[in-house]
Every structure is written in C-alpha cells, then in structure tokens.
Fold this sequence. Notes:
The protein has strands spanning 5-8, 29-32, 41-43, 48-49, 53-58, 71-74, 76-82, 89-96, 100-105, 124-128, 136-138, 151-153. With 171 residues, it is mainly β. A four-stranded antiparallel sheet has the order 3-5-8-7, with no helix packed on it. A hairpin with a 6-residue loop joins strand 7 and strand 8 (89-96). The N and C termini lie far apart (86 Å).
Amino acid sequence: PTAEDVAVTVNAGAATDDFVNETLVSDPLPATFDNAAPTPDLSTADDTVNVAFDVTKDFGESVFGFTAAGILVTGGDVTTLVGEDGDAVYTATITPTAEDVAVTVNAGAATDDFGNETLVSDPLPATFDNAAPTPVLSTADDTVNGAFDVTIDFGESVFGFTAAGILVTGG
C-alpha cells in the first residue's frame, strides 16, 4: 500500500463458474495502511525531585517489546518499569544519581502492531535537588541596643520551620 486509505475490489467478469457465469463486482473491502511510527510522549509529576520519581511514557498506541533497555537516562538509572506487551502507557521509576537528569526513549525501543518502530522521544529533563537549604541571616544594622529583626533566607521553600529552630546566644 502507498496511501493511508486502501480498498480492495474484485472486478465484474474477473472469473467464471462451471456454467460460464461471470463474477459480479464485489463490495470494496476497506483497510487503513498504518506506516506511522509510535511516538513516545514522556511526562512526570514534578521536574525537580529529591528522591526516585516516576516517568510516564505514552506511545499513543499499543507497542510490543518495550523494556528498560529502551530507556536512556542521563544522571540516573531505571529502577522499575511497569507495563506489558500490548500496552500503550508504561511507567518507569527513575533513581537520580546526578543533579541534572534527562530521560529519553530510544528510537526502535518498541514496535506497534504493524512492525513500525518507535521514534526517539524528546528528552524529559529533571533536576535532582539533594542540596540542603542553607540559611543566610541578615539584619539592617549589626550594632543594636535592643530588640532587632533578623531576616532568614533559605534560598528555597522550606517547611516546618518555627522559632524553636533558632538559637540565640548572649540575649
């Protein structure tokens, strides 16, 4: 086939029976020619992580032969892959090993029902944040003779910080 829509028809008179009766024209048999490669679409819940995270791979159609070997991870490792032959969506757990992580599905990592090999995916970037927040303290004037305000800048969002986490000496 060379076109997306294909139809097969037997022409009138293409054959005869024992009594020389010619065949009638048949109803067309429609078919769709699928030569489109499955294209993996990668997604994750958050692109900044500090633990192993899941990446969903949606091929848009059923694929076969997809394994963890078909996933390229820069700055991390595939630790699990969930999905079975014939699934369109797979989920891989990625364990970061470096600050910059990128996940890509390799070209030819799987095939669809018609043998079309998958295309390479766009890389899915993630940042592995394993650096502890570092508080930086500042005040308007470092010479005081009474109560004064101190600004604490952690450089990123923090949770659970209370006055109990502050140590004051000499005051």
